TrEMBL record:
GO cellular component, one term: periplasmic space
Protein name in the entry: ABC transporter substrate-binding protein
Signal peptide positions on this chain: 1-22
Lipid bilayer topology: Lipid-anchor
Protein family (similarity comment): Belongs to the bacterial solute-binding protein 5 family.
Amino acid sequence: MRKGALALGVIGALLLTGCAGGGGGEEPAANQETTGPQSGGTVHMLQNADFSYLDPARGWDGGVNAFYRLLYRGLTMQTSGDAEDPNAIVPDMATGLGEASDDGLTWTYTLKDGLKFDNGDPITSAEVKFGISRAWDPDIGIGSPYLKMVIDAPEDYQGPYVSGDLPTIETPDEKTIVFHLKAPFPEFDNVLSQANAVPFPEGTGAGDEFISDVIASGPYTLDSYTPGSSIRLVRNENWDPETDEVRKAYPDAWEFEIGIDPATIDERMIAGQGSDASAIASKISGSSLPRLQTPELQERTISADAYCTTYMSMNTSKAPFDDVKVRQAVNWAIDRATVQNASGGNQLADVATAIIPPAVTGHKEFDLYPSEGHAGDPEKAKELLAEAGMPDGFEFTLDIRSQPTAQAQAEAIQQSLEKIGVTANLNVIDTSIYYETIATPAKQNDAAITGWCPDWASSASTFIPPLFDGRNIVDRGNQNLAQLNDPEINQRIDEIRAMEDPQEAATAWGELDEQIMELSPIAPLVLEKGIFLPGENITNYYPSTNMTDLTIVGLKDPAKS
């Protein structure tokens, strides 16, 4: 999952999936006192940027995925943020996890009774199938790629609006849905926990219908939406809590205030006045950390470990990054310690040298481009550039988000590369459309600073295949930003995904991580941690740098919201 497009502007990098998964690290303490969450009131969210899309077939990053959990339901889901294992996948609309056939190619699910959309219409297997099949639409299905990667489909299938019925998903009756897979995939329950595996009424959602409105199946529905300004959610009266074991939905409403300067967000959360006492927001920026030393603020402060890798991708499909020596030179040259400082220092970031972060099963500790203090090795980089026929360096365009930390990281990279005669020209893109832009190869420039989070924490299969399998390169919604298409890498991905022993697979993913980094399609930069400061009236809040579970957040005193 893409790292939260709204980082520093939405919860944490609000950050799912586990983009979904919450990682495998220590669970942060919730902001709870003796008074637990009470039903009622309004929780406020302060954001710098808008969500990417209300439509879960289109949006796919940690911030919006956490938002989707308030509106939509799937057959399975990541369990609650306060669970003993918050990364576990549990049934949601299904009565249980999937029943796999002996050959692993067929998975069957049964729907619970009493499921309805916000208009009162029943949710049957037909609506689940229809909603899932939207992922194949070439214009709409630009979100999570796993449904298309795993579920079998005709080669020319383009979703329900273009191609009609998807024969590889069967609905023998209103309660039963059967999926046929391309190959055995033991983690299929995790695939169906993705944001785009949700039901919609048949025939809805074509074109831009869901750009400014929704059809909800979760505990809340859309009351109002002013793009770039505000979102208000209110209770979905047709959501039956008896069918939902995870979402607690304590507040009566959610109000999202959008377009606030990150420094102003920090100021408001530190002051905690009025409705801001019932607010949650982005992680605190590095410049504001020294102000959090008073006992009152320390009591409200919550830390969260890093589950996502921030990196710079390099477009291997065109010069100069089509030359592996050039890409390796960049990796040698980057002063990662300076990028760490630009990310808020060691309180908010650790240096990254591998693709898979330590919190995800499959991480292997290695550094193919070592330097003292992670300050970079310009001389080694210059040697490689000379071997590549570029002793005088080159210029390239670097795509970045219009967000302070991302820009500071980019400037740190600029300074590093200047030492080897390389000029990085920054192309600043609005945060709300950033990921869609760089995930469209026709719009993508030479390189981009982005991030990736585990879509489910149990396996590095949510890191390596989406980012480096060349068969996943598409015209829209492309996550392989480096456009790496190496037959040996592709084959090894297939071999690892077929492994039945999880430990064997985990070890193999770590080894493949190192093999990919020899090709240097990306430059790992940092692992961003988070320090959060919720309002004093907020409780049951478990922030994560991967995905924060909003569905269990509540207020100590709803009357004060």
